[in-house]
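Allow me, if you will, to draw on your knowledge of protein folds for a short while. The matter concerns a single protein, recorded as an amino acid sequence and a row of backbone structure tokens. Kindly check, if you would, that the fold set down in the tokens agrees with what the sequence suggests. You will find the record immediately after this paragraph.
***
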Amino acid sequence: MTDTEKATDTPISWFPVPEESELPKGLQGLFRKARETVGFVPNVFRAYSFRPERLSAWFNHYRMLHEPTENLSVAEREMIAVAVSMENGCLYCLVAHGAALREALGDPILADRITLDYRRAGLDERRRAILDYAVKITNEPLECTPEDIERLQSFGLTLEEVWDVAEVASMYNFTNRMSLACGKLPNEEYHALFRREHGADIAGKHCG
């Protein structure tokens, strides 16, 4: 039973959650690393461990997609995550990646505004275009056109980075739907993370 379950008496997933000792050694190592870096194991890891081989594949994909590039930063990739998650109403990802965005930006007020309503967060035209494209992929994928790609390129993104916007958005649509289908609850610890400007009160790195 996780700390969240102990505190709320509510399961973190509607599917069985294996004991950590039952998992493959590699995943046990992932859980240990999470405790060392953020102080807890993200509930998404515990929930996904119902199918451990797929947790490994999902996490490797997640890490690749969050690697920054010259024109698409860690913060901008997290912005895509929260913009898509807000469209889908995914509690888990909004809470977890809202915390990650606060860390990446070092500005908890701006991060919260982007998470809740990026259209009113005062973003520049470039970032607004990135998030508009991610939301279009989420809500109206049949309406996507080559002009969407060209527009992002006009703001300096490479063709590979436009692909990354599409892939990050698509990955979070998948993750959101799995979270909603499984009834995943976020760790309570996320709510307090990186609330003080520049994250000075919190050590370690976000994962999950």
